[in-house]
Specification:
Shape: globular
CATH topology of the largest domain: Rossmann fold
Distance between the termini: 24 Å
Largest sheet: 8 strands, mixed
CATH superfamily of the largest domain: P-loop containing nucleotide triphosphate hydrolases
Radius of gyration: 24 Å
CATH class of the largest domain: Alpha Beta
Structural class: alpha/beta
Length: 391
Amino acid sequence: MLENVPDMGQKILARDERALSRAATWIENGRPEAAALLKILLPHTGRALILGVTGAPGAGKSTLCDQMTLALRAEGKTVGIIAVDPSSPHSGGAILGDRIRMQQHHSDPGVFIRSMATRGELGGVARATAKLGALFDAAGFDVVFIETVGVGQAEVEVARLAAVTLVVVAPGMGDDVQAMKAGILEIADVFAINKADLPGADKLEHDLMAFQNLAHGAGGRVPKIVRTVASEAQGINEVLDAIRACNARGTRRLAPLFESSAASIDHLGVAVRSVEHALKFYQDQLGLEVSLRETVEQEKVNVAMLALGGSRIELLEPAESDSVIAKFLEKRGEGLHHVALRVPDLKASVERLRASGARLVNEPRPGAGGHLYVFVHPSSTGGVLLELIQE
């Protein structure tokens, strides 16, 4: 029997700790209530600073998070912490190392710490981490830390989820900067050289500055470098200032919209000069079946939908010479026209995109098959026309 999801949603918005714990368990376990709850909470997200904290084991990530939390609480800010820990080989649950190191916040109502196991996922985070971040965001926490498990150079997945990524390094860890460039160094918005009182800090900073120069010369971001000694609470305000400055510039990305809203790929739109000619390949060679054929009058396009597992391929043929698809074919030729994602709440997604300054091509309207959709301009998506569809 499903629980009272709307009631749970109201408790989450009031930052009820028991409700937060219960909802986090729903999300981690993939309970059916989780998707419905996130749909309710989605319009209330987008306000928190989502901070990813990553780096090699032993660099002092947990101690640094602990000290940053103390500093934020002194400012009156509330903090949610998602500590991704290794999975127990017996129970599959989190080993809880990070939570143990942050026990001083246990009785603070302005801090909520949740340990979660990787459950076999690579990249330093768990599959449900983004949704958990959205949960904390909706609960009204000012800052949400996502501290990764500490698995080394492959630990880059957190950069997709966070507005700002803090990479913690330390002298004497045996990781040469040149060897790390293709891994976690490239996702940094801010570097914290922790344990900066140890020998080798100067060389490490010099190596990071050399990496900065390479990134700047290639037109990339230039991450700020801050020295800290987290165990002595040194450099904490400086690293927070660097994080805030980076967030204010918007140099990275929005807080996760699609992970938290459980979006999925609906279809790939392919512009073709002739649907019939294209179907000879997709049907005869690939064995795909047509699930829909129609003409969308307002778009002046003939459409053929082909089922492909849980997604589809949409063939788009211009019905008139002045249609958008006809102009696309004239300029670029046949090929991928757009990527379409299903979202549980199109209205809320559109509101968040507008608030972020994203450029929308149209107002939500019915498309092929009667679904509501909106297009997001390639200038806001990294060069790809994106279609959002009401689930």
